[in-house]
């Protein structure tokens, strides 16, 4: 099963980049095409951009690609916030997968998934993956797939 939020993530990323561009174009336009040469516009634009980038980081919006199969679980994710360019991936063999937590915060708007894997040293916890941009049916499909793998792991082996 493959699930991803490519279309929604690309729209959000375009919007994230368009707003700062418009702010810079506005300030440049004011300085080039009007007689106003006050530095309040630059200060206002700078403060606006700082607040904008802080507010963008709060919801933790990510591009997420989820795959669950008989052999492995793979999640690829990347933050949509600017200045974060890391591509991350989690790969777990299905037989080593032990549990997951789906947590919500910000009045149920922010959803995070945490996966756990059995290792020789004990239970390993993977970093949180934000599912905030995933639609509710997609989140339900992910939980059903994970529940199915957990059920198969607990079934007696013949």
Detailed description of the structure:
The chain has one domain (1-158): PH-domain like (Roll). It has three helices and eight strands; from the N terminus they run βααβββββββα. It has helices at residues 6-33, 40-57, 136-154, and strands at residues 2-4, 62-68, 72-79, 87-93, 97-105, 110-119, 122-125, 129-130. The protein is elongated and about 80 Å long. The mean pLDDT is 86.
What descriptive keywords fit this protein?
alpha+beta; single chain; 158 residues; PH-domain like; four-stranded antiparallel beta sheet; elongated; 3 helices; 8 strands
CATH names the topology as: PH-domain like
Mean pLDDT: 86
What share of residues is helical?
Answer: 40-55%
Number of helices: 3
Helix/strand class: alpha+beta
The backbone outline, from C-alpha atoms, is elongated
Computed CA radius of gyration, to the nearest angstrom: 21 Å
CATH architecture: Roll
CATH class: Mainly Beta
What percentage of amino acids are in beta strands? Answer: 25-35%
Summarize the SSE layout with pairings.
Blueprint: E1 2-4, H1 6-33, H2 40-57, E2 62-68, E3 72-79, E4 87-93, E5 97-105, E6 110-119, E7 122-125, E8 129-130, H3 136-154
Antiparallel strand pairs: 1-2, 2-3, 3-4, 5-6, 6-7, 6-8
């Amino acid at each position: 099963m493959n699930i991803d939020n490519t279309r929604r993530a690309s729209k959000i990323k375009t919007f994230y980049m368009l707003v700062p561009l418009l702010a810079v174009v506005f300030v440049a336009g004011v300085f080039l095409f009007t007689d106003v040469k006050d530095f309040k516009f630059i200060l206002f634009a700078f403060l606006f951009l700082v607040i904008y980038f802080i507010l963008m980081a709060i919801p933790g919006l990510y591009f997420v690609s989820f795959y669950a199969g008989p052999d492995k679980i793979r999640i690829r994710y990347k933050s949509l916030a600017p200045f974060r360019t890391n591509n991350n991936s989690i790969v777990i063999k299905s037989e080593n997968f032990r549990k997951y937590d789906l947590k919500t915060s910000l009045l149920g708007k922010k959803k995070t998934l945490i996966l756990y894997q059995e290792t020789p040293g004990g239970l390993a916890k993977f970093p949180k993956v934000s599912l905030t941009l995933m639609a509710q049916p997609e989140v339900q499909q992910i939980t059903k797939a994970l529940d199915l793998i957990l059920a198969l792991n607990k079934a007696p082996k013949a």
